[in-house]
Amino acid sequence: MDKIQKLAIGSIFVGTVVFVLKYAAYYITGSIALYSDALESIINMVTAVAAFLAVRLSAAPADANHPYGHHKVEYFSAVLEGVLIIVAALAILREAYFGFLSPKVMDAPMQGLAINAGASVINAVWSWALIRYGRRLRSPALVADGRHLFTDVVTSAVVIIGLLLVPLTGWAWLDSALAAMVAVNILWSGWGLIKESVGGLMDEALPETTLVRVREIIALNAEGAIEAHDLRTRHAGRMTFIDFHLVVPGAMSVTDAHDICDRLERALKSAVEDALITIHVEPDNKAKHSGIVVL
Predict the structure, then answer these.
(1) Around 25, how many Cα atoms within 13 Å sit in the side-chain half-sphere?
(2) Separation of alpha carbons 109 and 29, rounded Å
(3) How many helices (H) and strands (E) does the chain have?
(4) Parallel/antiparallel/unpaired status of strands 275-282 and 227-236
(5) Cα distance between residue 2 and residue 59, in whole Å
(6) Which residue, 37, 87, 93, 95, is CA-closest to 190?
(7) SS (H, E, C) 174-237
(8) What element of type H or E holds 279?
(9) What is the pLDDT along the chain (295 residues), one digit of tens a residue?
(10) How far apart, in whole angstroms, are the C-alpha atoms of residue 103 and residue 113?
(11) β-pairing verdict for 227-236 and 292-293
């Protein structure tokens, strides 16, 4: 089991602990806002399981039916997480609506808020770890899970601060207002996850800064060639796919052209982690004079 899968399992454990704590906070206080926080923790548990299954499947080697591997499975997990977040937000809005109709004062607010705060600290530490290691290991599922948890931390902090005002002001409706605010924030987070993950499924190119670096590497390490053109890039989970056409002199031997390709692959892989590179060699009469000029 690799590090990504271990982190995914850790998310399931952390999600379970946090849910138990947040539900206890809701049970003690009867707060709709704390109920919304607990409900989001259920979504965290479900999506943690989905993330674990996704990273496990994405680690499977390429086969006859999937010659490029299974890396895109992680994007499906992130899309699922976004959808579930939106479902949770709609459920919270429903509870907030009924809370506005019949507001009530919380029971044992300080005890419940203290428990919720403890759960939020656990979430904060774990979300930081998931985002950090998810980016390092290039796992969209782990990064999505970490961002979702961080959103949970922010909303929990706002809820706690807001609920502290309820016993001081006597504004029982503030509980429902905070729940509605949490729901709107969750909706925005869910939409962002879906948008980013769909971009991965649609084979978006690398960021412009990375593309500039790729072009520079090709120009500096293709000595002996004439130009490179039709550069294409895309992400698929942890893998980065780079392909382009390399124009060489027509009289160049296959061996010499192959050596240039090997040099380019080494240079690109040293700069772009987990890169799969495809180079199509062409004779000089195929030059377009509009691609990457070899220095």
Answers:
(1) 31
(2) 6
(3) 8, 4
(4) unpaired
(5) 9
(6) 87
(7) HHHHHHHHHHHHHHHHHHHHHHHHHHHHCCCCCCHHHHHHHHHHHHHHCECECEEEEEEEEEEC
(8) strand 275-282
(9) 567 778 778 888 888 898 899 889 888 888 877 877 787 777 777 777 776 776 677 667 777 777 666 666 767 766 777 777 777 778 777 777 777 777 666 666 788 888 988 998 998 999 898 888 888 877 766 787 788 788 778 778 877 877 777 777 777 777 778 778 777 877 777 777 677 677 666 667 788 888 999 999 999 999 999 999 999 998 776 678 899 999 999 899 999 999 999 999 999 999 887 788 999 999 988 888 777 777 5
(10) 18
(11) antiparallel
Contact 277, 141 (CB under 8 A): no
Instruction: Please indicate, yes or no, whether the overall pTM of this predicted structure exceeds 0.90.
Output: no
Element (H, E) at 17: helix 3-29
Neighbours of 255 (CB within 10 A): 7
What the block records as the tokens of 265 is 């692959």
The answer to whether 242 and 265 have CB atoms below 8 angstroms apart is: no
Strand partners, 242: 233, 277
